[in-house]
Amino acid sequence: MVDQATRSLRQNSLNRICHEQSPKVLITGIGTGLDIPMLDERSHYIGLDITPAMLKKADQRAQQRPELDLKLQLADAMALPFENNHFDVVLMHLILAIVPNSLRALQEAERVLKPGGQLLIVDKFLKRGQWAVGRRTLNMIIRHIATKTNVVFEDLLDHCQSLSVVMDEPALANGWFRSIEITKSNHTE
Ligand SMILES: C[S@@+](CC[C@H](N)C(=O)[O-])C[C@H]1O[C@@H](n2cnc3c(N)ncnc32)[C@H](O)[C@@H]1O
Questions:
Q1: Using a 6 Å cutoff on CB, does residue 104 contact ligand 1?
Q2: What distance in Å separates the CA atoms of residue 173 and residue 124, rounded to the nearest whole number?
Q3: Domains defined for the chain, CATH in brackets
Q4: Is the CB of 55 under 6 A from ligand 1?
Q5: Is 9:122 a contact under the CB 8 Å cutoff?
């Protein structure tokens, strides 16, 4: 069901990557690997997840794509085991609203992304000032067992000085899900 509902979202997000120079791509929170069938074989990928069972399923999907340069790794999106400015592209599909500390995960993506690199996000966010009583109430109930439904993306971005939005468009469910492309400048603080 998740695969069906999110397939075109993923494809649109992945289509924004330019593969001509074989970029290094980090897939944060790769889950069961629903992105794997859509990955372009010219690029180099590291897919990480904190849950071994998810990585096992992702590995099964990866085996259907032996031509891909894809390494799977157990790691925490909030404490990435990579040096600064390492990746050309970071993908965050349905992960920012899941991790306990969304800001930390975004800042880690910012850290490991090269200046001029691309951060591609698909997730559900509230807009700043959006009241959304239902979603805020739902968040109180499900945040400890599932995803958060009250993350305001702009509030996270305020704390990431080198990131700026290139594209931000509604993707699903009346704009609750958004597809966002970010770039990293040379600005350091
Ligand atoms: C909703 S799934 C999305 C998976 C995949 N990105 C997709 O689009 O289908 C969220 C994934 O994030 C992983 N996850 C949760 N917390 C994490 C963390 N701190 N670091 C890395 N992965 C995490 C979960 O194990 C799960 O596989």
A1: no
A2: 9
A3: 2-184 (3.40.50.150)
A4: no
A5: yes
